[in-house]
Amino acid sequence: MGKFTSLLKESELFYNLTTTQLELVESIAQEQIYQEGDIIFTESTRGNELFLILSGHVDILVTPSLVSPRHKPDEQEVINTMWRGQCFGEVALVDEGIRSATARAGTINTRLLRITRQDFLHLCESDPELGYRVMFNLSTGLSEIIRHATLQIREALLYKKTHFKAPHEEE
After folding, report:
1. CATH code for the domain defined by 5-165
2. Which of 9, 45, 93, 105 is a Cys-bridge partner for 38, taking CB atoms 3.0 to 4.6 Å apart?
3. Residue 90's closest CA among 79, 80, 100, 81?
């Protein structure tokens, strides 16, 4: 078994892969080390890789000024903190679109595994079952994120509607 196979096995993205498939994933992954505060990737830039946290943690940040002029241009908000075994940047496996957030190393010697989209797609071509399982896990995870975001939007709209009535709505 490879150096990172057991951690890959624990990851939701690589759930239900065989040991051989996990070793194939490991063979295309590169270990990278970041220091506290290092930017791994930046919001609104193109992405073509995903990361799995080996040790340390990573903060996911957004820039509110991109959607609201009330915020300072350099202001960023942490919206999530990712820990050992979690993946981030995984949408890059599906497309090479624009990153929706910034990822920043939160600890000294934050260790990550990096997998590029191109290497992953080549792996999927050589082992379609592996590709199917990973993409199924990816879609399941993204569905969960979408459901959670939809609930948050509904709560925000409900709060806004019940606490901030327009003058013509006042009783």
Report:
1. 2.60.120.10
2. 105
3. 100
